[in-house]
What does this fold into?
Amino acid sequence: MRAVQISRFGGPEVFEIVEPPTPIPGHGQVLVRVRAVGVNLAETLMRQNRYAVTPELPAVLGNEVAGVIEALGAGVGGLAVGARVVAPLFAAGAFVGGYAEYVLIDADFVVPLPDTLSFEVATALMIQGLTALYLIKQIPPHGKTVLISAAAGGVGSLLLQLANRAGARAVIAAASTTAKLDFARSLGAHACVNYTWADWVEQTRAMSGGAGPDIIYESIGGAVTNASLKALAPLGQLVIYGALNIQSFQLGVPELLGLIFKNQSITGFAFAPLLTPGSLKTGLAELFDLAVRAQIKVTISKTFPLEHVAEAHRALEGRHTTGKLVLVP
Ligand SMILES: NC(=O)c1ccc[n+]([C@@H]2O[C@H](COP(=O)([O-])OP(=O)(O)OC[C@H]3O[C@@H](n4cnc5c(N)ncnc54)[C@H](OP(=O)(O)O)[C@@H]3O)[C@@H](O)[C@H]2O)c1
It folds into this structure.
């Protein structure tokens, strides 16, 4: 089979096409023919060895796959060859393996894919969809004014819609370009702010009745996190779920005093530790159902052939995407 591998950390040029043997499913395992694999910002960090987890080299990155069952290992029941499924490798504890023509996964983590959902859309609903869904469940926006950073991105574009569905009083989208903000508005954002503008904190406060957002779902880090703290309403909650520029965010005495006197809190969030095989299946079923009934709009930014993975990573790192990026082997 073909796969894209890295054997050293670095820029997008480190990807190389390799042809390892097609894996054979062992007891309890399923072999899936990959029809679409999602690309996530985390993989661009992993490629540079800037992620929380360092993959062992050589590594085939990617860990959310949609495809068709090619073969079943011994002892697998309830699944059939030819069935359309998703293979959320991340749920099975794997950070790697997806940028390939075939993947192996433990049968417990295989989830059926409705006929009316494309493989590409399914990839958008795995890591990014579950992150958005769990953020809403863990930190409910009902009745609150919320601000979402990178609101036109994979997680952001879904989070925005789920926050509206969950009864947010108002959703403020934050992003870096007018085109991205227009896209966020088309998905239901009530107000938009460009966080590359010097006065975006003041603008955000003005958009939220002077007080600031009650909840800020933040994934950028650095100066955006610091500014988000300034924009946050008294009693507000800053939810940090991305670590893109984590090194440049400093929580010093002024910030801590601000938190104390404004009764604010900072909450960390990661969806993976909250997943169980059961909650994975119910979470994906909920997201698939919303997408099938067109209750949420899933946007595929672009689809790349597997061998163009470097281009996909460049697009994501260059902030040129809205919604989901997908590789198709
Ligand atoms: N905690 C969790 O469980 C969890 C799970 C999944 C993802 N995440 C995090 O959620 C965030 C969004 O992930 P995603 O896969 O959906 O990505 P994405 O939002 O589709 O793309 C990243 C966006 O971040 C913004 N950005 C700001 N500075 C950037 C930079 N230096 N390089 C690249 N992008 C930059 C860009 O939007 P603008 O141009 O509008 O700024 C860009 O489009 C990431 O931080 C990711 O690590 C967390």
